[in-house]
Amino acid sequence: MAYEVNFEIEGVLALFSRPDTGGTPTSFPVPTWSAAKGMFECVARLASGDAWIRPTKVEICSRQDDQRRGSIRYQRYTFNYGGPLRMKSNTSLQIFATVLSDVCYRLTGEVVGNRSRGRNGGVNPSHHLADMFKRRRDLGQCHRTPCLGLSEFTASYWGPLRPDLTEVDTAMNLGIPSLLITPFSKEVNGQFFPQFQTSAEIRNGTLNYQSPK
Length: 213
Known about the structure:
Elements: E1 3-14, H1 33-43, E2 51-63, E3 74-81, E4 93-113, H2 125-139, E5 157-159, E6 166-168, E7 174-184, E8 192-202, E9 206-208
Antiparallel strand pairs: 1-4, 1-5, 2-4, 2-6, 2-9, 3-4, 7-8
């Protein structure tokens, strides 16, 4: 039995970096598959790895009164990088990025179970995770605060779909020659092995994800 889950996430800024843009990152127009998986896991996850949420599609949304349909909004953003790749002088590296602004997505996924692990005490891990996700989504609870790429880009809204306020931007049609799926070889416990979805296409505001092989 397949368990489908979804939620809506909105924010002022977002960055889903294109690997080919290097030290001055530019965002993909939509969350990558791995970024979407991370957003789901911010709400609910099983530490055991017996089940996880596999993103299947993303829908680009806009407010119903928004007149700017069919366009992606970018802006410049500067932040300090203090990670392991910085110079040995202990000074932060300033990064200039091109990020998305005023984004809203509806994410849909399916709960997948690791059949090789069986069921613990008769509990179906897929059903358990789906139920946990929906309960937390509706109550506004989460494992960690959902963000849109960078951890500082926290969501201004995340939760159930809002059909009375937002709708899919059906005027949005865009081809993406190469969209990062995931930096890892597997959905769970993988090694570094980037995978890409070639000729990805946003059609009528919707992009269907290709899962890792």
